[in-house]
């Protein structure tokens, strides 16, 4: 295969543009003899004659012009590569892989990606839905660059492998059947619901969150039904089979129909804390730092809406 030397091809192109070996040497801060030697070597590498005498000067052969026609495409591609690499170094380009739990995808990740597409279109964010345990396995294995989870299920702040970035304190509201006696009660507290049948998962993060919130309010919830999907949980609430805690950042379509009333709890409002984590040191990388900034912006916007 023919050896193409980019440096020597640039010298050949400069000779075409400048017209003489002396002018080429001046433009490239080389000596005329060095220019001649480099072009002789290029001719030998390509196996074609590149220069021919023309009076007291030299001119490019037809073969040299053919070589340069193809070299121009190479130069253009190298310019694009330089621009993309520069963008990568400034965090304007590159790929960031994100693992995120289900409700954080529409609430935080999608708004962040939309913002990045406008501000940094060369930055490619790849999203993978995963609960905390899987997300941190993927992060530790370098299969993703950033993981979103609840703080209660994130690695310890003392874990040397990861850096944690707080994003959001997400309130938990209670879903009641529309005809429930407490659906319109003023100042509803979680403790007021101690005797109610509850719907939550049999195990996993949401079971732990519901149980912990109720125990903090002074009671152990009676689990009447077990489900992990919001569609199933809210359908059972609407049917009057029980009540459930629902994260406020769950998307609107998961909040049920007219048969479900979402109540903001008073005084003992439980919250779940959302964090992002990266491999320690990666938060200083330009692309990852831009994604983290976009996630913080999305979280701040959501908190503003929640407070309003």
TrEMBL record:
Coiled coil: none annotated. This is LysR family transcriptional regulator. Pfam families: HTH_1 (PF00126), LysR_substrate (PF03466). Residues 4-61 form the HTH lysR-type domain. InterPro entries: ArsR-like_HTH, LysR_HTH_N, LysR_subst-bd, WH-like_DNA-bd_sf, WH_DNA-bd_sf. PANTHER family: LYSR SUBSTRATE-BINDING, TRANSCRIPTIONAL DUAL REGULATOR HCAR-RELATED. Keywords: DNA-binding, Transcription, Transcription regulation. GO terms for molecular function: DNA binding; DNA-binding transcription factor activity. Belongs to the LysR transcriptional regulatory family. CDD domains: HTH_ARSR (cd00090), PBP2_LTTR_like_6 (cd08423). GO terms for cellular component: protein-DNA complex.
């Amino acid at each position: 295969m023919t050896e193409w030397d980019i440096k020597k091809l640039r010298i050949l192109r400069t000779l075409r543009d400048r017209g003489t070996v002396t002018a080429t040497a001046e433009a490239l801060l080389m000596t005329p003899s060095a220019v001649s030697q480099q072009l002789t070597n290029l001719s030998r590498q390509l196996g074609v004659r590149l220069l021919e005498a023309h009076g007291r000067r030299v001119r490019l052969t037809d073969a040299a012009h053919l070589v340069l026609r193809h070299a121009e495409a190479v130069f253009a591609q190298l310019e694009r590569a330089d621009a993309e690499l520069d963008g990568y170094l400034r965090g304007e380009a590159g790929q960031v892989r994100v693992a995120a739990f289900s409700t954080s995808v529409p609430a935080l990740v999608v708004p962040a990606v939309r913002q990045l597409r406008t501000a940094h279109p060369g930055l490619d964010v790849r999203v993978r839905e995963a609960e905390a345990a899987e997300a941190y396995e993927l992060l530790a294995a370098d299969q993703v660059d950033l993981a979103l989870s609840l703080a209660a299920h994130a690695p310890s702040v003392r874990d040397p492998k990861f850096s944690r970035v707080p994003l959001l304190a997400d309130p938990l509201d209670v879903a009641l059947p529309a005809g429930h006696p407490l659906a319109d009660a003023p100042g509803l507290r979680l403790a007021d619901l101690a005797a109610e049948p509850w719907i939550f998962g049999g195990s996993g993060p949401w079971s732990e969150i519901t149980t912990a919130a109720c125990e903090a309010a002074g009671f152990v919830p009676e689990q009447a039904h077990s489900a992990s999907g919001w569609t199933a949980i809210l359908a059972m609430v609407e049917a009057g089979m029980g009540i459930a805690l629902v994260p406020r950042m769950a998307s609107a379509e998961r909040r049920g129909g007219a048969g479900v009333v979402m109540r903001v709890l008073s005084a003992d409002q439980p919250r779940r804390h959302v964090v992002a984590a990266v491999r320690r040191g990666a938060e200083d990388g330009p692309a990852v730092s831009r994604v983290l900034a976009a996630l913080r912006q999305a979280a701040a916007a959501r908190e503003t809406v929640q407070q309003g």
